[in-house]
Amino acid sequence: MGELPHKYEVTITTATEKHKIPDNVKEEMKASGLMDEKGKLKLKGVSPKMVKRMKEEAVDCPVLKSEVGFIQCFVCSNFQSRITGKVLCKGDAL
Ligand code: SF4
Q: What is the pLDDT of residues 54-92, one digit of tens each?
C-alpha cells in the first residue's frame, strides 16, 4: 500500500519540557469529542499507557516552527500517520 502524500517526515523525540495543549486546540478537541469537558483525553484506540508515553514525546513542528507535544501533533489536521518514530505531516499552513 502506498503512503499518502505528505510534505514532511517529522522525527518524534522525547520532550525537552512538559507541553501543554494550547487552549484553542483543547476547544477543537472538545468540539470533536477527543476531550471531555474536564479535559480528559478521549483518544479512540489509544490505551492509557500509550497516552502516558505520548505525553512525554514531542516533535519539532516544521509548520509551527516550534517544539509541540506529540498529543497536539496527533490531533493536528496535518497529521497523517505515525511510522517508525516519525510523523507523516501534510505540512499545510495552520
Ligand atoms: S502534524 Fe501538525 S503539529 Fe505535527 S508536525 Fe505536522 S503541522 Fe506540526
A: 999 999 999 999 999 999 999 999 999 999 999 999 999
Give the structural domain span for 75: 8-89
Buried residues in 63-86 as b, exposed as e (16+ CB within 10 A): bbeeebbbbbbbbbebbbebeeee
* From 89, 92, 94, mutation site for ligand 1 pocket: most ligand atoms within 8 A of C-beta: 89
9-40 pLDDT tens trace = 999 999 999 999 999 999 999 999 999 999 99
Domain total of the chain: 1
Measuring from atom 5 of ligand 1, which residue has the nearest CA? 61
Q: Is residue 94 part of a domain?
A: no
By most ligand atoms within 8 Å of CB, the mutation choice from 79, 83, 90 for ligand 1 is: 79
